[in-house]
Design a protein that fits this description.
Chain lengths: 547, 547
């Protein structure tokens, strides 16, 4: 039996495009001699459709798409992910299904048993878990068909009480197929490979795994679909960060004596992050039907790295950088920024914020007279820049890119409605120390980012001689504390016991918690870590915990 | 047996305050002769603690609080809601528990079975459902102790497969206690009463129900704890929108021949919304430790109603209104706004945006020269106002109130980083037609809001002669379509079949869906409807559905 894995980039709710894409892949797989072509989880709707799943009209459109696809499945069978109605009269209204299409119609429906409901996942919001298990007979083979998380209940402290593979093994399957929607983070490929390999080894069965490629707003699907031998060795894998289709012979996989895993992807973590961000920006624009990006280029490292990523995603001709110096900007900030824009070959404008700043001083003078310069005036500068960027964006149809990094977002070192503006946050899940790594990675072959941008002490340049280190711990320490608090959910005692200064720990944790109100209003953030701000981290605002 | 219901206003993560409050209520109940005092679901932590539940430190603090409370429970017993660790080694790491405290310690742990995971609820994110059922013996009675949703699996299409009361009835309980965290929406009290009454009647048992009072950011807990006779009649209820403690004699409730339900609350829907919003604003400020509010007062109805609510929540002395007329403002806008501020007795400032507007015209002139006035310049005015309001807020320590209504938020009729700014959205879950009702309700005794503000055609006043009706359908029609799409999840065909104009329906639905990116960055919204924007409505941004 020949099995094609079709790793496609779907667009949520774009039924026309998704259906055409799937049908084209069915034809291609058939032409190349496949007996079965496998698509990803919820391929028909795109993943995650979120609360669109609550609309009958949306579900009807999913089913209509499946009907169309099924018509092409006469000389080939297909597996396609689709939400279906729960007709049992009890429980959540839908199942997350893998539909088996053959002879022009749906011949089997398999439902997902283990519904992820943590971090960015909300599947129990919509779906009732499966409780009935059976394999699918096709061309004399028994297929154990599973959906993503169904294979993930391994390890010592399983997150679920049930284990679908234990049930399916009773039917003596010949192979495992897993259709997934597994978004990228920098450790995900390693985890995924380990878990799928365990499933292959434990059950002594080949595993065929299909993922999505492409981004849906903040979620970056890295593709990397895989095939495992019954010994748990990676037989082959599909491309990373792009669409791909590949055909495998079941017998060949089953009897392969491969001792070494195949791996075609990036192995360097920072390279993975770079590629994920480029794909994220590219897909965000494409799926919204926009071409042109805009950003404020300060001469600092965050906007520099964001600009490079934007140019790589959209092309230099589609990216416009705006330099907005003030009285507090250092000379080199402007020259560094211009140098970078010229290195990249993208359009830039220099617009002073002086006149606007003076006008607000005058306007507010009746209220502020005699009061000292404080955070108000710092924020004012950032907000004037925000207004200018949004005006250009409105006038010419750019999307503004947010350039804040994760360290800033964490401690609230940024101005709401100012530099925190943007349609999408490119670096909001990248700590400052990782932004430096990204800059080095970008510069490794040729010095694209001016060295001065990388080496000078970080500063918001909102008052004379300001440095980030005036109000924050050194980024090495800050990022370490943030990582342990945010990614690892370690508390104050655990951190202090590690030797971090008590006052620093308490200050940082307080800053993170009291700035929840700011993060609530920031753009969606391209997710590259296991715990990004946004839909994956849900915090109360009025709470008083560690504050 | 005498049972006290303690309906308190908790603060998420504020263990010191919550514990003190609970201990004080334990003492008060004991002094008043209660045998048992019942607190709400997750009382110890406040509800919803959201992802703080993922922190061991947070859970440890919950347990420490319970230990302290238990020390007071020697001559009285207490039931208190608290998250506890799942020690079974399988499934989610926590249970949502009701702890029974007597003789100075925890004598029983009851876990929640039905975990709401829809709308604003995310309980399956954290908690493993209970699978073991038993009653609690106390003073010769068998108590069926349940947690909120555990009693909600009634009706023809139950959302859950299990039904805890079916299991508990096997132990022949003498009464049902339900501890809840049931947030307000304008129909919730009616639904709640019906469901609890059904439980009493079906099981022929008295029901003691305890809710939270007070707001946690957007979630408004309206209190209204209730006691039901075994015939399902409301024996008595506690106060609405505030703390309360009341003691009931079990035998008296059990043998009551009441035929008429007791109801002390507001019965008018718009009055309920009004009271909920006032409580929401008051609690938001109190729990954040702020006193002073700021808002832009335009002379229009939305900011007028918001101002009245803010004054009622915080006192006139704590609310500052800022009028920011432009060349496009009508004269009456300023006079109406001043009249209202004077009627309420709150401070107001008049600040022209003219100079700032001109300065941006000059600043952007090199880029915009020769291009026509468009949405850019409209947004510019709104953003200048946003900058002024945030500057005053930063300088003097006010929280800015957002004054957008739900109709605007739905169709994106507002400027991001302009009039969509604010710490909390007061009217963001109130459709424009309901804002008019609120204005009438506020004006019913005395004409607080100038009549002209209510009767003039709504306008953003961002270009000459502009009216909302230039770009939107009449609010009667718009709100009807929005309500059916947002609250009822009806699709385009269902709406068109009702007789709505096809083009209008498609336009409105497209506006709702394409403005998801704006709503993503708006403040949390006080929730008064069954489907508010924010945590209860989760939509993709890059989707292409009905657009």
């Amino acid at each position: 039996m020949k099995i094609a894995l079709a790793q496609l980039n779907y667009h949520i709710g774009n039924f026309k495009e998704n259906t055409e894409k799937i049908r084209m892949a069915v034809r291609k797989a058939e032409q190349q001699g496949a007996d079965l072509v496998v698509f990803a989880e919820l391929a028909v709707s795109g993943y995650p459709p979120r609360d669109f799943l609550e609309f009958d009209d949306f579900i009807r459109k999913c089913h209509k798409a499946v009907e169309e696809i099924a018509q092409d499945c006469t000389d080939i069978a297909a597996i396609v992910g689709c939400p279906v109605k729960n007709l049992t009269g009890k429980g959540k209204p839908l199942f997350n299904a893998a539909l088996f299409l053959e002879n022009g119609k749906v011949s089997h429906e398999t439902y997902k048993t283990l519904l992820p409901n943590y971090d960015i996942f909300d599947e129990y919001r919509y779906f009732e878990p499966n409780r009935k298990f059976e394999t699918i007979q096709f061309k004399g083979k028994q297929i154990a068909l599973t959906i993503c998380e169904d294979l993930w209940n391994t390890g010592d402290h399983p997150l679920y009480v049930a284990n679908p593979m234990h049930e399916l093994m009773k039917y003596k399957p010949d192979l495992i197929i897993n259709i997934a929607a597994s978004p990228f983070h920098y450790d995900q490929q390693e985890i995924r490979t380990r878990i799928l390999s365990q499933n292959a080894k434990n059950n002594k069965l080949p595993v065929f795994y299909v993922n999505h490629a492409g981004a849906q707003t903040e979620l970056l699907f890295d593709g990397g679909s895989m095939v495992f031998t019954p010994e748990g060795v990676v037989f082959d894998e599909l491309k990373y960060f792009e669409e791909d289709l590949k055909i495998f012979d079941l017998e060949e996989v089953k009897h392969s004596k491969k001792a070494q895993s195949a791996h075609h992807g990036q192995s360097e973590k920072i390279g993975l992050i770079h590629d994920a961000l480029v794909m994220g920006v590219r897909n965000y624009f494409k799926k919204l039907g926009f071409h042109k990006a805009l950003l404020g280029l300060s001469g600092g490292i965050d906007s520099a790295v964001t600009l490079v990523i934007a140019v790589r995603a959209l092309g230099a001709g589609n990216v416009r950088a705006v330099l907005m110096p003030s009285a507090f900007s250092s000379d080199h900030s402007v020259t560094d920024a211009i140098k970078l824009a010229e290195n990249l070959g993208c359009q830039y404008d220099v617009i002073s914020i002086e006149e606007a700043y003076k006008s607000f001083e005058n306007t507010l003078n009746p209220l502020f007279r005699g009061l000292p310069f404080d955070i108000t005036e710092e924020n004012l500068q950032a907000r004037i820049r925000g207004v200018i960027l949004m005006a250009i964006s409105n006038k010419f149809g750019h999307i503004l890119l947010n350039t804040s990094n994760k360290s800033e977002a964490a401690v609230g070192y940024g101005t709401l409605y100012g530099d925190m503006n943007g349609g999408i946050s490119v670096l909001g899940d990248v700590y400052k120390t990782q932004v430096f790594e990204l800059a080095d990675y970008i510069n490794k072959d040729q010095g694209i980012i001016p060295l001065n941008t990388i080496t000078k002490p970080p500063s918001a340049e909102l008052r004379p001689g300001q440095k980030d280190s005036d109000s924050l711990p050194d980024y090495e320490i800050l990022d370490d504390i943030l990582y342990q608090y945010i990614e690892l959910r370690r508390g104050p005692h655990e951190l202090i016991n590690q030797g971090f200064d008590e006052e620093t720990v308490k200050k940082v944790l307080r800053l993170v918690n009291t700035n929840e109100h700011k993060r609530y209003q920031t753009p969606p953030t391209l997710r590259v870590s296991p715990k990004a701000f946004g839909m994956g981290r849900r915090m109360p605002i009025v709470a008083r915990y560690l504050t």
